[in-house]
Specification:
- The chain is an all-alpha fold and 182 residues long.
- The longest helix is centred in the first third of the chain and has 33 residues.
- The chain has one domain.
- It is built from eight helices and no strands.
Length: 182
């Protein structure tokens, strides 16, 4: 029963994210351009774009904090394979460091990326974001493969279902509010 609740809560989150993405791609740019006096569409579009580009940072930080505070206590009580923990921790740390590297001034000796990497990033501007979200997805899959870590991460499904229904409610409320404005 618990896996059933977790599955449907995650399915609601997925459907909400897909619907919000489609709205952000097809509907919001047109509505923001035709109704510039309404700040709702412009703000919604801005939040969508910024969360798509930088939303992986709080997710990575939350997964690292979860691993440090929750999973560390469980590991002390019994022996578990450390390779999974090591891989997920290193991937998240690498992704966060790569995300914060462009913020550093160029004169700090942090090591500039090679010219080929900069050329690839210039050619494909969405590549760093896609790689970061892909790494977060990989870590989530690694953590959720085992039932014990999945239950520790997602809980019994009650909080997750409240969050997923809340996300869906916010999306539907913004959609109806925007529909009333047009």
């Amino acid at each position: 029963m618990q896996e059933f609740v977790q599955f449907f809560a995650l399915a609601i989150v997925l459907l909400t994210v897909i619907a919000n993405s489609l709205t952000g791609w097809f509907l919001l740019p047109r509505l923001a351009a035709t109704h510039p006096s309404q700040g709702l569409f412009g703000a919604w579009l801005w939040v969508d774009r910024e969360s798509a580009q930088y939303g992986w940072m709080p997710v990575a930080a939350a997964l690292l904090a979860w691993e440090f505070f929750v999973w560390r206590k469980i590991r002390k009580k019994k022996t578990v394979p450390k390779i999974k923990n090591w891989v997920s921790r290193k991937i998240l740390t690498f992704v966060l460091a790569a995300g914060f590297a462009p913020i550093l001034p160029w004169w700090l000796p942090a090591g500039q990326p090679p010219d080929r990497t900069l050329a690839a990033l210039a050619r494909y501007p969405g590549l760093p974001c896609a790689v970061s979200w892909g790494a977060i997805l990989l870590v989530a899959v690694i953590l959720c493969v085992k039932a014990e870590t999945r239950e520790l991460l997602l809980g019994k499904g009650k909080v997750l279902s409240v969050v997923s229904v809340g996300m869906l409610t916010i999306f539907l409320a913004l959609t109806l509010l925007g529909w009333a404005f047009t």
